[in-house]
Amino acid sequence: MNYKVGMVSLGCPKNQMDAELMLARIKNAGFELIADSGLADVVVINTCGFIEDAKKESIEQIIEFGKLKEEGRIKRIIVTGCMAERYRDEIVKELPECDAVLGLGANGDIVEALKSVIDGERVVRFPEKACWSLDGERLQTTPEYFAYIRVGDGCDNCCTYCAIPEIRGRLRSRRMETIVDEAHKLVESGVKELVLVAQDTTLYGVDLYGNHALPELLERLCEIDGLRWIRLLYCYPEHIIDRLLEVIATRDKMVKYMDIPIQHVSGSILSAMNRQGNRKMLAEKTRKIRKAVPGIILRTTVMTGFPGEGQAEFDELCDFIKEMEFERLGCFAFSPEEGTAAAVMPNQVDDREKQRRRDIVMQEQSRISDEFNRSQIGKTFEVLVESYDRYAGCWFGRSAADAPDIDGKVFFSCPSGRVKPGDMVKVNITDSMDWDLIGECCN
User: Fold this and answer.
1) For strand 297-304 and strand 394-399, is the pairing parallel, antiparallel, or unpaired?
2) In whole angstroms, how large is the CA radius of gyration of the chain?
3) Vertex 269, ends 87 and 288: CA angle to 5°?
4) What is the pLDDT of residues 114-160, one digit of tens each?
5) Measuring CA to CA, how many Å separate 376 from each of 236, 252, 409?
6) Is-contact 335 284, C-beta < 8 A?
7) In sequence order, what are the beta bridge partners of 408?
8) The CATH classification of domain 4-131, taken from the options 3.30.1330.10, 3.40.50.12160, 3.40.50.2300, 3.30.460.10
9) Who's near 206: CB < 8 A, 6+ residues apart?
């Protein structure tokens, strides 16, 4: 029997990279991959276990496919990913519908696990995380014109609220030659934008080469013919060095965009988070980045309701957001994760208060974003075309100011109609709406 295999991958782009590596192995082993997992014989659920909402989503997916299994519509369920690694015993004991539970180190055993569960065996494997290679053939799951590329995995920062070091282990950078080779292959297949990811992208190479090697890696990637955009996500502010800013500022293929998750600005809160800095340092760093890279779009992430955050600390965060006017900002309410130091800290903040503070931050950010978008009216931007919205009757895509999946879109009309997904077109901005821009193609 030719078994059909479907995969549901949840969570961040780093998890998606694991999924793409596993999918390539599954395909090369002769299994038929199917996009609609509800029609598959075997479903691989690549879980996320970072925060409570992600865990709930992962569990819901397992239960939903468990019902399909009971109905006889699918035959086997394999669970992989961060939640499998983190809650191995609980999943094995409490979710018997799972035919296999694989830790991160067992991702390379996915084909063997598939064959075993098809034969009726239950598979539980949790080898060392480092057993899973970050390199190898991958099956791209993003649209053909853009791809994530993982420069490393794991994290040495050990923030007190974060379980990633426990789940993913210590920092493991990939060899520069391997990354560049993978980038060449992606561009040859039609990729125009590469989005670099890791738990902390700015620490790339410190473990392998003894120095911050990201600037050198970017310079080598900029030499690839046919590549148009290179974007950086997850850059910790304390690790942003002058050489990195110089490369972003001077290389045409580097989009003037940087994601710098600051989490907070109160010195006492940052110290409790085991993060560096304070409001003054973060303000100076932000101004330095803007001066070094004129016109750069800055995205950040902040957290409300961390233990010990009183009104004064929250007001300091809000004042900083108003002062810095980040073009892009996301806010999350603190989630007390099991096994982390922050989960058992005194002075926990009430859940309702966390959410109330989050809403205040996002309301202020909505105002800032609205003002920024209105300031873009009359300008012309290069836009990477994504698709056609038949309900709105127009095309949409992203400018260099917009990262995939997390930022807004540029909706535009095209009188000539001669565009397709993956094209790069010039769009004159005529209006704004919420988080998005509206314009007209002027190619």
Assistant:
1) unpaired
2) 22
3) 110
4) 999 999 999 999 999 888 899 999 999 999 999 999 999 999 999 99
5) 28, 21, 13
6) no
7) none
8) 3.40.50.12160
9) 171, 173, 212, 213
State if pTM tops 0.85: yes
Q: Which CATH number fits domain 146-375: 1.10.3720.10, 3.80.30.20, 3.40.1440.60, 3.40.225.10?
A: 3.80.30.20
Which amino acid would we find at residue 7? Answer: M
Would you list the domain boundaries of the chain? 4-131, 146-375, 380-441
Tokens matching residue 147 = 């791809």
The token duo for 67 is: 């019902």
- Averaged pLDDT, 323-337: 96
Residue 404 neighbours by CB under 8 Å, 6+ apart: 142, 146, 193, 195, 398
Number of neighbouring beta carbons within 10 Å of residue 330: 17
What distance in Å separates the CA atoms of residue 388 and residue 384, rounded to the nearest whole number? 12
Closest by CA to 383, choosing from 370, 367, 400, 395, is: 400
Architecture of domain 380-441: Beta Barrel (2.40)
Q: At what angle do helices 110-118 and 13-28 cross, to 10 degrees?
A: 60
Cα–Cα distance, 423 to 421 (Å, whole number):
6
Sign of CA dihedral 145, 217, 278, 333: positive
Beta strands in 268-378 (DSSP E): 297-304, 328-333
Confirm if 149 and 189 have CB atoms less than 8 A apart: no
